[in-house]
Amino acid sequence: MNVVTRGFRGRGGQDPARVPPGQYETHDFPVLSAGPTPRVDTGEWTFSVEAETGRTRVWTWEEFRALPQERPRVDIHCVTRWSKLDTDWEGVSLDVLLEDVETTAEYALASSYGGYTTNLPLQDLTDGQAWIVHTFDGEPLAPEHGGPARLIVPHLYFWKSAKWVRGISLLHQDEPGFWEQAGYHDYGDPWREQRYRGD
Amino acid sequence: MVAWRPATLAADRWETDSARTLVLDVPGWPGHRAGQHVDVRLTAEDGYTAQRGYSVASADEGERIELTVQRVEGGEVSSYLVDVFAPGDAVEVRGPLGGWFVWDAASPDPVVLVGGGSGVVPLMAMVRERRRVGSRALFRVLYSVRMPEDRYYRGELGAHRPGDGGVDLFVAYTRRAPEASPRGPGRLGAAELNTHGFPAEFAPVCFVCGPTGFVETASDALVALGHDPRRVRTERFGSGGGAR
Predict the structure, then answer these.
(1) Where do the record's region annotations for Disordered lie (chain A) (predicted)?
(2) A76, A160 Cβ separation under 8 angstroms
(3) Under DSSP, is residue B136 helix (H, G, I), strand (E, B) or coil?
């Protein structure tokens, strides 16, 4: 039973089918990061997938850009309570990047330039649920939003969508990432309000 | 589940024309570390709820916490909390939240605090916690505000209170400086971060908080000055209307 706050009415008017509980819709694109923005040159950029066996597949920027591209339009939900609807991205599906990887792992850990990490079940990265994107709204992805390339996993809170991503490791054991170690939820489903550990 | 707790407004202070400090009694508050934040939940009579995150401004002092809320035009939560919320009224809070943008009060390392506008709030909590625990860690605070009237905590931050020896404050006015000020209005730049912060060789912990553009610029400058990016902790307030 919530405490009713005297005199508070609020704006309301959000679509509960698209804006999860505790969120509000924004038309801006706020930035949240734990530290300075890494500047990554595409000439030095690589993306790798490392299986639990240690076998690693690496793509240079040119190789990555030559892969089949998709243009997902998705809603995104930040744990700091903003949601942004109908965002347009361009990039490569994780299904493409994981296609030739032999694995029996159940977990994944995404790592970023600058040292950020986040963990997810591997099954949340496949079947058209996740992309490595390089373009937002028709423009190259800005560094503060994770450029040159970031992960997007729109069905989870947006901290799972690692900026400046440099690789994904496949693991037999779940390994908490940066925010997951700092008190945030291990899975982060916005529709179940899994914001913090224990939610 | 991090519990929601009723929080009753015990007292309030105006920091500026548009920012108000809320002193909340939160029975059962478990304590917090300087720099952490809380979620605030407001519920209307018809059941509509809205939630926002706010940094805690106060030191860890029992079951009473302070938040400083800046009114955002069109912000349904901030305009309620600044203009309507009255002593005796209740909201709900949960926390403390966030385990990264946090000052370790046991650490003797020097500290550089860089705040833009309302980004000074969690930095004030660090200065207050330093005073409360009697820390001798050296603090340098760089505070960027548009004009003198926009400064929060005017009688306290930089006022050399007992226990604040070792805390230096530099204020950068971006639009209009006080008449007596030798520094004209202008943005806080790398040179001033260098002069008024600590050299990278001292390996300070740097906390940077404010609007996105401010944090991007200041944290880039700290890295350019040689600070280890892993020791530059940032908290960005979205540009978003209503975000705070």
Answers:
(1) 1-25
(2) no
(3) coil
Which residues of chain A have a Cβ shorter than 8 Å from any chain B Cβ? Answer: 2-12, 22, 24, 26, 28-38, 80-82, 114-115, 144, 178-179, 181-183, 195-196, 198-199
- Of A2, A33, A181, which is closest to B41 when you measure between CB atoms? A2
Question: Residue B109 corresponds to which tokens in the numbers above?
Answer: 């390392």
CA distance A11 to chain B (A): 6
Superfamily of domain A44-192: Oxidoreductase, molybdopterin-binding domain (3.90.420.10)
Predicted local distance difference test score (pLDDT) of residue B242: 31
pLDDT in tens, chain A (199 residues): 688 999 898 776 778 899 999 999 988 888 888 899 999 999 999 999 999 999 999 999 999 999 999 999 999 999 989 999 999 999 999 999 999 999 999 999 999 999 999 999 999 999 999 999 999 999 999 999 999 999 999 999 999 999 999 999 999 999 999 999 999 999 999 999 999 998 9
pTM score above 0.95: no
CATH class name, domain B111-237: alpha beta
Best B93, B206, B223, B228 member to test A by mutation, with max A CBs in 10 Å, is B223
Optimal mutation site among A80, A112, A185, interface B, most CBs of chain B within 10 A:
A80
Considering chain B, tell me which residue range(s) the CATH 2.40.30.10 domain(s) occupy.
Answer: 5-97
Please tell me the distance from the alpha carbon of residue A197 to that of residue B70, in angstroms, as a whole number: 29
- Contact status, residue A164 vs residue A170, Cβ threshold 8 Å: no
Q: Which of A37, A82, A196 faces B243 most closely, judged by CB atoms?
A: A82
Q: Do A36 and B90 touch (CB under 8 A)?
A: no
Which residue ranges make up each domain of chain A?
Answer: 44-192
pLDDT digits (tens, 9 = 90+) for A179-193: 999 999 999 999 999
Range of weakest confidence among A26-30, B58-62, B232-236: A26-30
B59: its two tokens:
């030191």
Judge: B76–A22 Cβ closer than 8 Å, yes or no. no
What digits encode the pLDDT tens for the residues B152-167? Answer: 999 999 888 999 999 9
CATH architecture of the domain covering B5-97:
Beta Barrel (2.40)
Distance CA A43, CA A63 (A): 12
In chain B, the residue whose alpha carbon lies closest to the alpha carbon of A79 is B53
For residue A185, the chain B residue with the least C-alpha distance is B1
As annotated, the residues of chain B forming the CATH 3.40.50.80 domain(s) are 111-237
A3/B6 touch (CB, cutoff 8 Å), yes or no: yes
Helix, strand, coil content of chain A in percent (nearest 5): 15, 30, 55
Distance CA B31, CA B43 (A): 24
Q: Are residues B240 and A82 in contact, defined by beta-carbon separation less than 8 angstroms?
A: yes
ipTM of the complex: 0.83
